[in-house]
# Entry
Amino acid sequence: MTRQWLLTLTAGGMFVGVLFPRLGCSNPCSSPPPARFQPGQNDNYPNGADIITCSEPTPGHEIWHIEYPSVDRHLTDYPAITFSPNDVVTLNASGCVQSGGFGSDTWKRYVNPDDGDGGLDSQYYGTVQISGVTGDNTPQSLKHWVGSPFIVMNAGHLALGYVDDGLGDNGYWNHDDGSNNQCVGQDKASVDIVIDRGAGHLLNCKESGGFTNTPVAPEVLELARVATLLTDDAKVPVGLPVTVDAQGTSIVHFQLYQDGKRGEHTTKSNRPLNSAEMHGDGCIYFSFTPTTSPIWYPADLAFDNTPQKNWPARPWDAPRATTSFFDLEALNRIPASWLPTFLPGYCSGAGNSWRSAAPRWIKVCTPRRVPPNDWTPTNLTGFPLADSADSELAQSGAVCGWQIKHSPSVSDGCVDFDRSEWEPVKDRNYLNAEGIVTNAFLSGGDYSGDHNGMPDGHYLGEHGDVETHNAAVENCPDLSSADSGQLCADWEMNVVTDPNYLHLLARDESTLNDRDGGDCQSKHASEYRKGNQVIDLGGALGIEGEQWYYPVGYRPEPGDRLLVRGQWVVDCGHPDWHTELHPASLLASSYLQTNDFAPGLGMTWNRPLRLTSNWRTITGAVPAVVTKIVASPVFAEQSLEVDVWPPARPNACARLVVARENEQPDSRWSGVQFTENLLPADGNPNHLHLTITRKPFSLDYGDDGDVQNPDENLTFFTAYMAWWVQDTCATSGGSNTNNPPPKCVTWWWCVLCWVILFLILVWLIVRYLLHQRAATR
# Structure
């Protein structure tokens, strides 16, 4: 047989295999399994249970339908509904369930039950489990997986479950309308599973990587001087101006900037826009969005434990459907592996279909009566001068006494079970750091003896991730490993700091000799004295705190811009002796929302629900920065201050608007007061300044070096969304013109013009009437 015939037969076989994947085998879709209960067979299921039907309109496109799914047990397997690698699955579910118990309102929605107060109930909901997608241990809420398609990368089958504190009396009997009439006309639940066999490649999308060359605009001396200093001395490459100078209320100079190097005459139009504005008081504000960023993944599912760490982190995203949290974590530690911020996240960008990187805003104030050419990093107030490499903390091992906090070992004199695990670098100081989050995850296997369990009654908020992160989660076990996500396990974050915070890192001293007379270097060669360059940090600063300090919905995620405040310590539990801000008392993390939240394309519970879900309604569909803020139970200072910044200002006439996740202060916030001010206070603010204050509170520290008495009464977490509106203001001069920009027109100018026109008209009419009267005499 010739090679050509072999190729023809092989191709033909592949074609038949795609069209008829079960040729010669029985197809479960053609003969679904019998119902668990037939009608009338069980009082709790008067119309039957698990009544399964299936159709296959075209080969390889299966539509499974389950009516009255079982809700009287934790998990029900459906072995006939199977999945194979590269199958595309779409789930939908609806209807209501009898949740049992007493009273007249016992029916609940199957997917998103109402708790009676309009919120999402913490139980009475359906769950799903698919091997290698949703995980193998804990079923996840159906609410998280219904909607958009996702890819299955491991062979397995469907399992559905139900969450209730008493499952035995659940079913579909004695229908009522439920609290808040949530079940009017709905007397059963149903689940639809659409399987497209081997169709994973069809979910690929095209990258939007095209660009045009945008001419560079004439420089403004003041802005250009600061841009040069930021690029050279702060390591912030703000780029080149692409719009001509413009003015607005209290703004004497304004230009948009884009990625580019001095001397170039054009920039690439698809790069993020940066803005520069000089106010009348001499202060200059630059916003800067980097062109690359760590790859976003949903941190609410990130658990640094086996097998969870090997689950796919983004199974709905075809290019990364097989990539685990463990793999993404490793990629995010290497800046050279970061992805563009200017491509859609569901193709090859760093973000997602609805979120991207937020800008860094930098404020510097110029010296009076000093010409711009003489401005320097030292005479510009607030200039973020980059730290030199030798500014990193030296001899961090000495802070730990050259010992490791670890279980004692007869053969290893490097460890000391009795020493503190965290040693403050100096005087337990609380310091700030800013930068980009590379990874955020729940620590796996923490020793619970040096952690704090969540106090009874502490308010953690209400969120869609009700099955794994609310108060019902098991608290801290006694003197054992918290390896199942218990509340006392650490929430960990790694942050690549801005260049002016490099001094907080411990330097790599692995080439130096061991301590005198020791052999710890040979015993711990892979980590010894590597500081923050150890492999699991990759040059990032560690941030930690108990999981319950940071509620779901407000935790930083990869790619977020972060302001963090915490105690500066050396981690003596590892032979690298790296530095951390631990525990973190303040977290303010930001991302840019550019589109509607798409559950299937961005499956995460870790978001402020009202703001992100209603982005289009709230902002009018313009890009907005969402900033999540947490004041944790170890906040013991008199006050904390944080700024909430918008995207880059689009033009000199744009007006700032800010919305809060909680439209009214939450009655369950306790222990703090907060004030909000729009700044600068010159009539054209560009950010919100938030001050959080509290009564004096003293923290106690135990022998392990960690906080022993977090304030169980302190609860404050919220989020802000900031964006720009233009109202009647015209757009500033475009990038392809040298014409002067149009002037800003405010509403009162328009009113004044109409008043003047009206007075002129009245004057003309009166003059005409007087003339006519004189002519008739």
Confidence is low (pLDDT under 50) at residues 1-24, 465-472, 730-749. The chain is about 10% helix and 30% strand. The CA atoms of residues 13 and 453 lie 60 Å apart. The helical segments are 3-19, 221-233, 325-332, 396-399, 520-523, 609-613, 615-619, 747-776.
